[in-house]
Amino acid sequence: MATIATELTVVEADVLRADDRRFDAMRRGDWVALDAALADDLTYVHSTARLESKTEHIANLRAGRPHYRGIAPRDRKARVHGGIGVVNGVSEMHVERDGKEQRFTVRYLAVYAKAGEHWRMIAWQSTRQPEAQG
Q1: Which domains does the chain have, with CATH numbers?
Q2: CA-CA distance, 19 to 87, in Å (whole number)?
């Protein structure tokens, strides 16, 4: 039984590393790495409810709409069901769009599918958390 628990932990860690690589590629503008991290049938829903395909998402990022200056995920949990990995987490976002910088926090759901030896993101949905009232 301990072997199964260890294997699941390793697989969950692999999914979280895929999540890290994707965030890093977005922040660095590494379009080759980002293309490899995203499934061709990706659905990407921004915290503004804007829906993009993989092609639209990469094209918008290349054009700086938006430009991710910082992405800091935390409080993540990965679950794996067969060849599907699900990540729930929170991320601090620092973006620039149309010359304006914004910092905000999102709660997100990222879904990955195993493609050969790699995990590729097939879906993203995020919700902006309200700013603390004080």
Answers
A1: 2-128 (3.10.450.50)
A2: 8
Q: How many CB atoms lie within 10 A of CB 96?
A: 14
**Predicted TM-score of the model (pTM):** 0.88
Cα–Cα distance, 123 to 134 (Å, whole number): 34
The owner of tokens 């905000």 is 104
pLDDT of 8-24, one tens digit each? 589 999 999 999 999 99
